[in-house]
């Protein structure tokens, strides 16, 4: 008997509408045979329900199972140590292991995180649990957004399989990975062995021969329930979420006096005004997946457009490219008989040609021109932009993460406009030269003729008068030719500038081909910024230094050396007091220092180059630390420069005083950046910068998290300075002192040596008061949700909700598996420190 169709979340073990597919048999048989398996498919395709049913069957046959959901509770700001600790703590709870986690974790502090995880599996889990074990890791795509690499984690899972040869106990341990990702996503570092083990379980849509459990719920409600379920499948293509939802909608229709047909329900309840009717969210999830990365979205939309068109004309063969994999993971298309097809008729109606064209226009206002330019093999210059259209496109692109093709299109448009401008200037210069040549000749002839006439008339006055007349004529002719030469010089300068912009753009392409994406973006950014510099010498200095930087990344030191030397020559020719000259000189000197650093025998030269850059930073901080988008040397570059300089001079005991100066300068830079974000009410950036500032003061950047004793390293003056900045810019709403007072008002004690259950409850009460914990839902809120609330109206959120990241990354930000002692102790140590500092 079918009570209700369930289409939101996982189906319970006893769900009457669960449809058994080939994947059920394949996954169960694979795991029973101790094969590592992975189910990687689009959202709402039944992965979690498949896991629930498979775990039930395995447990019935004596296999111990655990399921870890990596997406639960939010994970964005979790430090790696806490992430692994939560993972192990969860397994202890699930298998009810007899171990004091805190003591065990402390005993293994000297081991790396992956080694601790391995030792836990070998020395605890496999020792205490004698049966076969299957660990399901769900939502693995969540780890791709962590702020630390997880290649080691997946490499370890791969090694668990390989360990079976040397350690037979590992044969009892099997992993199953589920999520919206492809195997190539799991280990991204190209030098490492890819994730190439395990059995892929294909999760297809419901087939006609499988849907008897769904058809049962329609019996007695329709005269021909089989025809109804078949028509439902014709619309949904067997997509689990849509099929269950449409079945439920038809059951509701059957209770009406004049029920609608399946087609009418699909159109009125799903397709029409689909954005407002998409509850629970499904179609919007697909759209968001395709459009989430502006750099890739254009490619995906164009590939999807080809797939739609190909169904009538030709076929797109599935070849596992990145774009095809991404479209498959979105759920919008499926693979059938080696070809790509739109998954179902509903998707085809909603995500139609008009939708594609509108999204492409939203992605780029120059969509039509871009499409024809690409189709021409990047040769049709008539499609390139110019004038107001180009200026508008560049304004639109300023804060976008564009694809390489888009960047090339805009760069080609800019280059064409420059070339046209040069051509106009050349024509004007040529006409001006011809005019001045003509005038000069006419003037010369006129002067000579007049001089000759006067000479003849006044010959009796002697040769002196004649000589003066001739000298005046020569001076006039030279002045005319000098004007012509100036025009030629200007033209030559523009030509050299354009050539260097082209070279830098080509180097950006070489960097991209070498998978150096951020370096490629930086090269294109510097090329674009060069257009804002009017001084020829300064423009050449930045272009040549940027080319040197690119050659360094491409491992071409000779060319890098030549370019930086030329850059310095241009810089030395410049007599200017513009703000940009300070930024450019810092960038040039930093680039020179980077080059020397790579050549280990030139450390003294590197210190000298960095030292000159540092002197400029020290003497002109307000002209360099502007944090503006059009800044020549970015805030990130300045921070990296400080850290690199500190690293180099740390090796030289004679430079201790200089090292202290650089460390203090870095601290001032981080604080200036922190204040900049606070004044701009950019709360998330200010919160993260608070964390970075405190890490720097405590010398914990390498670890990327703070523990109790680290707070003693942060001076009271620093804590007060940070706290006062929060208070002033939030009208007293946020700050450490606000949080400390709430901590005390909630009944939490300071300086605790033993923690009891009452303390834990009070701590949770504090979290509720400041808006970290939802007492109704009994869950800690994800970091992104907290920031979203603050951004909407910072004066209406609870007092003390920020800062968060300034002390540590909370346990509850990882997976919401419950509070551990770690959180309480860190807060207690931190607030005790604030109390000692009289905050």
Strand tally is 9
Can you tell me the overall shape?
globular
Average of per-residue pLDDT values:
81
Pick out the low-confidence regions.
462-471, 473-481, 806-822
Helicity, in percent? 55-70%
Estimated structural class: mainly alpha
**Major sheet, described briefly?**
5 strands, parallel
Total helical segments: 35
How far apart are the first and last residues' alpha carbons, in Å? 65 Å
Question: What fraction strand?
Answer: under 5%
Order of neighbouring strands in the sheet with most strands: 2-3-4-1-5
Rg, Å, rounded: 35 Å
What would you say this structure looks like, in words?
It contains 35 helices and 9 strands. The longest helix is centred in the middle third of the chain and has 54 residues, at 404-457. It is mainly α and 839 residues long. It has a 5-stranded parallel sheet with strand order 2-3-4-1-5, sandwiched between helices. A two-stranded antiparallel sheet has the order 6-7. It has a two-stranded antiparallel sheet with strand order 8-9.
Sequence-ordered SSE layout with sheet pairings:
Layout: H1 22-32, E1 37-40, H2 47-60, E2 64-69, H3 80-95, H4 101-107, H5 113-128, E3 133-138, H6 151-162, E4 173-179, H7 183-186, E5 199-200, H8 212-216, H9 225-236, H10 240-254, H11 262-271, H12 274-277, H13 283-291, H14 294-310, H15 322-330, E6 333-336, E7 339-342, H16 345-350, H17 353-363, H18 367-375, H19 387-397, H20 404-457, H21 463-513, H22 517-530, H23 536-553, H24 557-573, H25 579-598, H26 603-619, H27 621-624, H28 635-649, H29 656-679, H30 683-698, H31 716-729, H32 736-745, H33 757-769, E8 773-774, E9 779-780, H34 783-792, H35 821-836
Helix pairs in contact: 1-2, 3-5, 9-10, 10-11, 13-15, 14-15, 14-17, 19-20, 20-21, 21-22, 21-23, 22-23, 23-24, 23-25, 24-25, 25-26, 26-28, 28-29, 29-30, 29-31
